[in-house]
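Subject: sequence -> structure tokens, single chain

Hey, anyone have a minute? Need the predicted structure for the following. Not urgent.
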Amino acid sequence: MNRNLIIGTVLTLVFITLAAVSFIWTPADIETLDIPNKLQSSNTTNLFGTDHFGRDILSMIMMGARTSIAVALVAVGVGMALGIPLGLLAAARHGSLLDELIMRGNDLVFAFPSLVIAILITAVFGASAVNAIIAIGIFNIPVFARLTRGAALPLWERDFILAARVCGKSAARISVEHILPNITNLMIVQGTIQFSLGILAEAALSYIGLGAQPPTASWGRMLADAQTLVSIAPHTALVPGFAILLMVLGLNLMGDGLRDWLDPRLRVVRT
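Reply:
Had a minute. Here:
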């Protein structure tokens, strides 16, 4: 296990732990306003201070972590659940009309800026965490479909696949039993990368008011509320900003470390 994998895993686990703990305990109730104590700096009662409503920022960070992780996790799950089967199907029918339809459909989705379309979707159907999940998930589908197809195509020319064909196995069975296990490591690495992008996308949508709605806490919403308070209470913007930074950094480091750790060629070199 390399240094990037260890550091990235630790950073990611810290925020996952905060999100999990928030289900049973937070230092303060984020729905309770305490205007007389607003914009307090770090103290013994509020470790990261309070926001413009007097709410405890640490509690907001914990609840925001839960929102960001849930949205990104479900969005990536949607992308993998639909994109990987489409990629396997396109690779199995390489050169056919079905392959062309799948890949040209992916190209059509890629032709539009993802964040702009996500904003359009949430603006049309309403601002909510569910619509943010749908918007982010849609753009994860072609990512996994293209990666799956590209990784699967060379495998179809390998001898063990030809042997499976000789044994009478169907293309669907070969894809599930032989192709998918050999590209799982790539899907895991790409999943961590898309997870970090999902965190950023959720924060961006919440920042402009199209993500999770109050009283649900969101890091992007915290940044939006703090943008006019930077000069008088910089901690209200720095804390959620660093939370997003560290979470995304941890996921990217973990993805980079997993890529090196799962690569069989590098494994031989290490041996």
